[in-house]
Amino acid sequence: MNWKRFLTVGMTAVLSAALFAGCGGDNAQNAASGSGAKDAGKKIVVGLDDNYPPMGFKDESNQIVGFDVDLAKEASKRLGREVEFKGIDWSSKEAELKSGRVDVLWNGLDITEKRKENMLFSDPYMDNRQIIFVKKGTTGIDSEASLAGKVVGTQSSSTAEEYILENEAFKNSMKEVKTYPDYISAFMDLENGRLDAIIADEITGRYYMSKHPDKIEAVDVTVGPVSTFGIGFRKDDQKLRDEVQKVLDEMIKDGSAGKISEKWFGKDILKKK
């Protein structure tokens, strides 16, 4: 009986030692590989305004598509991580990011000093300016000053709205400034005569105009400063920011990002370093 007990205790000790050694080996391997291994298979949730063509929007099959969507898919593929696209209320984008409901804001996001206070940004990858759009055949609107006395629309929490709010004299010169949850709604009101003009991202506005050439035209006048698009990350997520920046740089250098740009814009309009 004592011998059996001795053998049982001995075997238990050997098995425990082996198990401990195995765990130790795993821990050592994990420590050596760093947190990158831990994140390797983790899904990246991209927050976007899913009604913002051509950057990100739902197609006829209700699938989220777009220029930034294609860029994010290629970047995630290179990182070896799954990507999920989540439509959000764009006016609450910073809260969605900070809360962790999304990991990245990648959807024609202008880099501004105000936004830098609450998030990290990638390097700029595209220039963007705000211009005026009017209903086809409209006359008398040919400058920022000519918007005085007019009903003007733009997207809520957009760069255009920020510019209007920061310039009180400009805002007060207009009869009314209407804000919309997305530019599509604004353009529909413009077509229906409920707006005199829209101030919008040139890229988005011209894409919409290309789909409605007989209804909308652009006034090629820059409103406010020219901005740049960047990818937004949480303030404490420097690691993800740097990983995405690295693969985005590679995509621009090897021409794959340029091909995506040509698909959506007809030419490569990405910024080069």
Topology:
Blueprint: H1 2-33, H2 35-39, E1 44-48, E2 51-52, E3 56-58, E4 64-65, H3 67-79, E5 83-87, H4 93-99, E6 104-110, H5 113-116, E7 120-121, E8 126-128, E9 130-135, E10 151-155, H6 159-166, H7 168-173, E11 176-180, H8 183-191, E12 197-201, H9 202-211, E13 216-222, E14 227-233, H10 238-254, H11 256-265
Parallel strand pairs: 1-5, 1-6, 10-11, 10-12
Antiparallel strand pairs: 2-3, 3-4, 6-14, 7-14, 8-14, 9-12, 9-13
Helix pairs in contact: 3-10
Can you describe this structure?
It is built from 11 helices and 14 strands. The model is unreliable at 1-37 (pLDDT under 50). The termini are far apart. With 273 residues, it is an alpha/beta fold. Strands 1, 5, 6, 7, 8 and 14 form a 6-stranded mixed beta sheet that branches. Strand 2 and strand 3 form a beta hairpin.
